[in-house]
């Protein structure tokens, strides 16, 4: 099978402690120069991502907010894939002293052990929202939105099939888009459930694993 694109998670996969090494950026540039497309699939909010990762323009498209927002660096275009969070939901979480609390254009995020409080607020307000976990992070999104739906929307815009995409990740929220793609990879520091679901596991962790994967792709 011929792979035309690489879709990668950010934190814990491409980046360690929120940062991407120069060697990893250089590997991404080599893969892009080979004619393949790069897609970033992250739970981060877009402004936060751009602040910590100045090389975001290496990517053809960015799936942010765990599937709720598409961003195309070449044109600076943004496309929301879900409704904005209800103000009543945000106010209720603040009244319940949920901290930290981060509100994006769609996503509402906090950390464990706040998931019980968030779930109760969703129930009390009668919202069709879900909770998605990411190594301790607790992300609230409208039902039906995840990294797979976001990536699929990006691929449709790019005219690509998921069968021709390699996906790489490390955490439970990555499983949906790993299953969507033609070949799935887990970095060495991935959760055991992600390694078990992946087609291949790198020997290196985070960026070193990405470099390992890219070198293997370029050698084919």
TrEMBL record:
The record's GO molecular-function terms, alphabetically, read:
magnesium ion binding; phosphatase activity
Q: Which GO terms describe its cellular component?
A: cytosol
Q: Where is the signal peptide?
A: none
Which segments of the protein form a coiled coil according to its record?
none
Instruction: Please indicate which superkingdom the organism of origin belongs to.
Output: Bacteria
Question: What PANTHER family does its record include?
Answer: HAD SUPERFAMILY HYDROLASE-LIKE, TYPE 3 (PTHR10000:SF8), PHOSPHOSERINE PHOSPHATASE (PTHR10000)
Q: Per its record, how is this protein called by name? A: Haloacid dehalogenase
